[in-house]
């Protein structure tokens, strides 16, 4: 069964804490965009649903959406088929933008934290023994990476790993993974897509899912670490 867009947002959208409603809602909608949970050209869920899921007023939500529209990330359309749509982001950046993005994060810290979360999620999923609908969700996410055109591969890659985080059974791990993956995606946007690397990554995805579904926790953790190390090497090579 195909998951609805609103279901894809579950790892990110959650009730905000009192006092910082605007800021936390902005962070969550930004993660939705940066993780590709709603693809470019598609519509966000209705304002009423978004506001209810984050526990904020529609006035506050509209302020958040207005900021993101001003930043060129979203677009509001009127009419019968209107709503708030995600805009396509240009992957070609100038040198100043590259320096800004690199300076904004601690690259090594982000890569280490991602590896810890990836390996932990893989081990937890394998230890739980995924079956039934959970196993099919993981297989479906894997198939989507195989079927993805080149310009949609990184988004599908993100959704596969986010599915593993969700299936780990730890909402805290899932939320932390969504945050660090959004940071990593910002950096990945700064480097070219390399077909040879994607082919290698796909083999690792296959091995990772196989280990998880076979209940091989040690094997799943090892594949996850190896997979993260490959991405880390690319980012260090291009950005360090």
Q: Give the DSSP E fraction (strand runs of 2 or more residues).
A: under 5%
- As residue ranges, the low-confidence spans are none
Give, in spatial order, the strands making up the sheet with the most strands: 1-2
Count of distinct strands:
2
- Gross morphology: globular
Order of helices and strands: HHHHEEHHHHHHH
Verbal overview:
With 240 residues, this protein is mainly α. It has a two-stranded antiparallel sheet with strand order 1-2. The protein contains 11 helices and 2 strands, in the order H-H-H-H-E-E-H-H-H-H-H-H-H. The N and C termini lie far apart (42 Å). It has helices at residues 5-8, 21-34, 47-54, 58-70, 95-103, 107-128, 132-147, 153-167, 171-188, 195-213, 217-239, and strands at 74-77, 83-86.
Q: Secondary-structure map with pairings?
A:
Layout (H helix, E strand, L loop, with lengths): L4 H4 L12 H14 L12 H8 L3 H13 L3 E4 L5 E4 L8 H9 L3 H22 L3 H16 L5 H15 L3 H18 L6 H19 L3 H23 L1
Antiparallel strand pairs: 1-2
